[in-house]
Amino acid sequence: MIKKIMFTNFAELQNCVKGHSFSSFWTIVEKKESMLFLNLSFKEDIPSIKYAVSVGNDLMLNASFMRERISKYKKVTLPFKVKNLNEIFDILDYFEKDTSNKSESTLNDRINVIESIVKNAEDAFSDKNHFFFEFLELPLKSIMYHIYLKGSEIVIF
To answer: Which domain of life, per UniProt (predicted)?
Structure first.
């Protein structure tokens, strides 16, 4: 039997999700008119949500890390409207693989959150303050470049 991956509304999305298996990394929750994909972490037996990916009734996909909205992953601006399950699998795999390298992952996660916060602040202010946010983004890009070249162990803030 061929499993359906395309959908045009939320009910079809629910059926698609029920027909597929997901990594144990993710906990799937249906809440009202949203589908939530949660990565739970535990510290001293207290659960917290590390990553959250949600798809609403309007099929708009949003993501967050440690309660901060993620505005971009890869080259995709969030939120975006999903049309098939592969788009959801792609972002879930991206976040799951990002956590597979523990030390580099934590640094990358934090840099991604900072980038999202700067981007959200930039969007909230007028164009005349745009240069300030570009200035804030430069060190982040430099850090990412050094991580790529030398690894996260030697990056010093």
So the answer is: Eukaryota
How far is Cα 151 from Cα 121, in angstroms, rounded to an integer? 29
Query: Could you tell me if residue 137 is left (phi over 0), alpha (psi between -120 and 50 degrees) or otherwise beta?
Result: alpha
Question: Which residue, 97, 95, 128, 129, is CA-closest to 112?
Answer: 95
Tell whether pTM > 0.85: no
Instruction: Express each pLDDT in 124-133 by its tens digit.
Output: 666 666 666 6
Single out the residue of 48, 51, 82, 77 nearest to residue 64, CA to CA: 51
